[in-house]
Fold these 4 entries.
Entry 1:
Amino acid sequence: MIKYERFVLENGLRVIVHEDNSTPMAAVNLLYNVGARDESPDKTGFAHLFEHLMFGGSANIPDFDEPIQNAGGENNAFTNNDITNFYTLLPAGNIETALWLESDRMMSLNFDQEVLDVQRKVVIEEFKETCLNQPYGDVWHHLSEMAYKVHPYNWPTIGKIPKHVEDATMEDVKDFFFKYYRPNNAILSVAGNVKLEDVKTLVKKWFGEIPMGNVPTRRLPIEPPQLRLEKKIQEASVPVDALYLAFHVPERLHKDYYAIDLLSDILCNGSSSRLYRRLLKEQQLFTSIDCYVTGSIDPGLIVVEGKPSEGVTLEQAEKAIWTELNKIKAELVEAEELEKVKNKVESTLVFSETNVLNKAMNLAFYELLGDVELTNQEIKYYEKVSKEDIQRVAQSFLTEDNCCELYYKAKKDEVEVVC
C-alpha cells in the first residue's frame, strides 16, 4: 500500500507526495499531459523533439545536467504517444535542486536558435539510426499506419518522417511549448525521504508563480472499428523474416484491460507460456516470439510478433500462431495457468513499489488517468479476472477481421554468401 497526499496549486499544478523514510533518496517526477497523439499529422515528432529541447537550458540554467550531478543525482526523460515524462533521482536533502531546475524550464525555456538547430539534428540522427538504419526499425511506422486510419496513433512517437522535425521553426516550437508545457497540464510527484509540509513549501516557492496556460481541449477522432483483415508485405535488408499480428483492444481504463493484459501473458510471458513453449521450444517453428499489450490511454493493440526458424515460411508461422489463438478461444484456460500469470503480475507490481522512482512515476501516471488510488487497487482488478473473462476477450478481439498482419521479409538478393 502506497500512502500519498495530494494537493493542487492555484495555477493548476497537481502534486502527489509519498513519504518513504526507508531510503536516503528522493525521486522528483514531472509528467506533462502531452504526447505524439497531440501533434498535427503534418508536424509529427514534436513531443519527442521537446523531450530533447527541455535539456537545452533555460533562463537561469545553461546546463541542466551539471547541477543535478553536483547534487549527487541523475535525470532522464521519455516520451510516448500519451505523455512526456521527466524524472530525477537524488539524495533527499537535495530535492530543491531538482524542483528549481524543473520550474525554471517550465517558466522560461531557452528558445535559442542554436539549441533548436542542434537538437533537431540530434533527433533526425536518432530517427535515422533507430528507424531507417536498424533492422526492423520502422516496424511501428507500418503497424501504426495499418491499425489507425483517423486517430493520431497513426504515427510513432519519433514521428512520421524526419522532415517534420527538420522543418520545425522557432514559431512552431514556441507555439507547442506554450500550449502544453504549462503547470495546469502537468503532474508533479515526489517520493522518498521527504516530509509533506517541506515539499509543499518548496513546490509553492518554485512553481507557485508560474502562470497557467490556455491548454487546448483534446478532441481526438475516434478510430472506427476495423471490419476486415489488414495485410502488408514489407521487404527490407533484415537478417531474417519476421511476422507481426496486431489486434485492436480497448483503452487503458476499460474494464477488460486487465483480462487482455493477462491474456497476453498466458500467450507469451516466460518459458512456460503457450506460444513460447509450444511454438518455439516444442515445435521449433520460431527463434523468438512475444506477445504484449501497448497499454495506451486511448484504444490500443495486443501484438504477437515472432521470427520463424530457418526453413519455416511466414505462412506456416502465422498458421501455427492462429492455431494457438483459436485454442485459447475454444477452451477455458486451466485455473493453475491463470493463477500463475496473476502471481507474476502481482510480484511485478509489488517489486515496483520497492523503488522510489517507480512509485513517483506510477503516482503521476495514475493521477493522469484520473484516479491516483489505482496505484493501490490494480492488483485487485487483476485478481478478479476469471477463466471466462480470458476466453471472452480472446473471442472478442483475437479475430481475423480485427487483425493487422505484417510480413517483414528479408530481401533475398541482398543476402551475402561467405565461402
Entry 2:
Amino acid sequence: MGLKKLHFILVVLTLLFIVPSAYAQDLLARQAPVDKHLRKIDTLALRQVVEREEAQMPASKLYDDWSNKYAHHATELPDSFRINLRGFHMPTESRVVTSNFGARWGRQHKGLDIKVYIGDTIRAAFSGKVRVVRYEAAGYGKYVVIRHNNGLETIYGHMSAWLVQENQVVKAGQPIGLGGNTGRSTGSHLHFETRLCGVALNPALMFDFRNQDVVGDSYMFRKSTYESEGQAANALRGKIGNGGYVASDVRGETIPGGGTVKEASSAKQASKMPHIATEVRYHKVVAGETLYSISKRRGVTVDQLCKMNHITRNMKVRVGQLLRYS
C-alpha cells in the first residue's frame, strides 16, 4: 500500500472519531441551560409534593425523628393544635372501661383499660404508620405504637399477638393485634393510649367507648387546659358503673340498660339510653350457686336476671361469672 493511500485512510479514521465526539460535546453544551431549567422545575415540584404531604399529615410538623426503639419520648408541645378525628375506627367493640386515665395505685395511669378477651381483634384507631412492635415484660407486654396522619400516636398494650410489622402503613380499622394479658397485667384487657409529641392525653377527650364513637369531628388541644379537660372527661366517659361487666357488654352486642349498639347509634335512641350510675350492680358467682339461689339472695326474679344478662333459664352459671342484678 502506498504512503499517500495510507495517509488518506488515517485522515478518514481521525475524522470519524473526532466529528461525533465534537458534535456530542456541542449537543451537551446546548442542553446545559435546559437541564438547569428542568432541575429548577423538579425542585419546585418536589417542594410542592412535600408541602402537600405535610398539609395532609400534620405529624410531620410535630415530630423530628422516627424511631422503632422507644414507645414514647416527650418533646415540646404546641400551644394549640387541632386534632382531626374524622376517619376514625374504634380499636375494639368493647364499651367497658375498667380503669380510667390518671392517678392509680400511687402512680399515673397514662391510658384507658378496656375489657377485651384473649383473641379479640384490636384495630388501628386512625390511618398511619406503625412505628413500634415490641415486647415489654414489666410494662406493656406485646404492644404496638402507630403514628397517625392527624398528629396523634396511639399505643395498644397487653396484646397476645401482633398482626403488623414496624414501618408498615395501616388504614383505620385494620387489624393490628389480638387482645391478651401479656406484660404487667392482672387480666385480659387492652391498654389504650393517645399521645401528642410523646405526652399522654386522656383518650376520653377524643374517644367515647360507651357509645363506640369519637366526641366530634376534631379535638382542639390547648397546652394550658388539656390536663383539666382530661379530668373532666373521666366523669363524662369514665368507667361503667362499678367496673362490672358481662360478655355481651364487652362483645359490643348490647348496651347497659337495654337495646343494641345498632339501635343506639341514632341520636334519638341514644337520648333515651339511661345514664349508667353506681346503682348498676353485679354478683360474682361462687361454687354451688344457681340462678335461683342468686335471684333469691339478690331479691330479683330469675326472669329479671335472665333479661339483664341476656341468658336463658336453663343456662348453667360458672364460678367467677359476673351477673348484673340491678
Entry 3:
Amino acid sequence: MFSLKHRILKTGVIRGKTDIHCHVLPGVDDGSPDLPHSLDLLDYMEHDLGFSDVWLTPHVMQGSGNTAARLQEPFSTLSSRYEGAMRLHLSSEYMLDEGFDERLETDVLPLGERHLLVETSYMNGPNDLYDLLLRVWHKGLVPLVAHPERYMYMEEHDYQDLKAHGYEFQLNLLSLSGYYGTRPRLVSERLLEAGLYDNVGTDLHHLDRFEDYLWDLKLTRRQIDAIELLFDNNTHL
C-alpha cells in the first residue's frame, strides 16, 4: 500500500530538540579535526537543524587517550568560542573493550542524569557483552546502546534479549536514509516499527554526505511521529 513520505527537515520535528550523540568536539577523535570545523558544525546544528541542546560525545576507547579530564579543555575552549544559543553538554561514547572496566570505575562522563552511551565493534561484539552492561547497571547507570542497527553480528533475538534485560537503544537518524548501507537501513526501520528504540541522535562527524543525506531523508508520517517521541525522550535523560 502506498504511504506518503515527508522530507523530515521540512516537518520541523527536529527544531527545539536535543541531540544526544555527535562528534563535534575538536581534535579528539574521528569527528571534527579543529575548532573552526567544530564551530561550522555547531552553526549547522543550530541554524539548519534547529537544535536547542547538544551533547558532545567523543569516542573513548583503548588507545584514544581520551579521559574526562582531557576532554574538559577542548570542551571549555569550544564553549567559550561558540556564540550561538544552543546549550552544550559534555559526555562520551564508550567502547566496550578491554579497557572499559577500568574506565567505568574511575573516569566516565554520564549522558544526562543516569545514562551511559556505549558501543561495540561493528563486526564482533565482546564475548562478555552482558557482563559489561551489567557492570554499568551496578554503577547506577543505564546502558544506552548506540546505533544497534549498525552491528552486523546482531540478529533479531539479540535485540529482543537486550531489551528484555532493560538496556536501551539509540537510533542514528541517518541509518533510516541508507547513509550506512542497506542492512542498517532495513534493521533501523524494523526496530523503529517495533518500538525498540528509546532515543535518537545524529552521530554527526562532518558535513560531507551527511548534509545531503539528511536533506533527502523522507519518512512516513508514522515514522516521523515515532522519531518525535524519541527526540522528546532525549530531553529527559
Entry 4:
Amino acid sequence: MTQTRELGASGLTTPPLVFGGNVFGWTADKAMSFRLLDRFADAGGTLVDTADVYSAWVPGHSGGESEAIIGEWLKASGKAGKVQVATKVGMLDGEGGSGLAPSRIAAACDASLQRLGVETIDLYFAHQDDESVPQEDVLAAFDALIRAGKVRALGASNFHAARLKSALEIATRAGLPHYRVLQPEYNLVSRHKFEGELQDLCVAHNIGVVPYYGLASGFLTGKYRSAADFGKSVRGGRMAALLEGKGAAVLEAMDSVASETGASHAQIALAWLAAQPGVTAPIASATSLEQLDELIGAWDVQLTRDQLDRLTAAGA
C-alpha cells in the first residue's frame, strides 16, 4: 500500500505525488487522459490538481477543459470520492467578474462543480493573490462556500509570505477559514520563491505544500545538457538560462545520485522536493503512461541525508 501523507491541516492525504491536470484536453486528449487517470488511481494516487483556467491558452479553448475531462472520468470510473480533486479560481475571468471578487468566486465555484460533476470540491485554491479585493472579503466568500458544502478545504497558490501571513491573521481574528495548503513554484533550480520566510510560515502553521514546476519545465529530467539539446521541445529556449546559472552544477550532482540509486533524474528531483521541510507532495504532469510510471516511481526513492545535502548545495 502506498504510503500517504497528511496534507497540512486540510483533512486530505496523498502519496508524495499530486497528478497535475494542466495537460488534460491539451497535450493529452480525452482517451489518453482517461488512461493516465486510471493508472494514477490504480497505483494509489489520491489527489489530482487542476484549475478553471486550464486550458484557456489553447486556440479554441475557453477554460474548464481539464475539469470537464476529470469530471467525465470520475463518472465513468466510479472513482468519485476515492480520488480527490483540487481546483482553482482567480485567473479566469467570467460570470461574476474577475480575480478574487466574491461574486466571481461564487460563480466560478458553481461552474467548476458542474464541470467536475461533484457536490464538493475537496481543495479550492485562490490561484493567485488579488490585492484589489480585501482579504477578509475573499475569505468570507470562501467561507460561504464551505458552509454551503461546496468546498472542503482552502489553498493559496502563488502567494508571497507577507500576504499569506496577513490572510492567516485575518482568518484567526475574524473567525474565517484558513488557507491549509500552499502551491508555490519550487524545484532544485528555482528555490527563492519558497525557501525562507514562506517555507518557515508553512512549517509553523502546518500548511501542506504542493509545489508546481517540480521538474523545472523538463530541465531536471537531464535531457538539456547543451545548446544542441534546446531543440528537443518547444520549451527548449527556456533552458539556456538554467544551464548558464546553477543548472549545470545541479545536473552534475543529480548524475552522481542517479549512479548511486539507479533512480532517474526526474525521480530524484521529485524525491528531493518531497523531503524538504513543509512539502507534502510535488505536483507533476505526464502525457504518456511511460512518463507517469516514472513519476510514480519517485514514491519509492529514498534519498540519504548525504545525497539530499549534496543536491541542495549544488543549487544554493
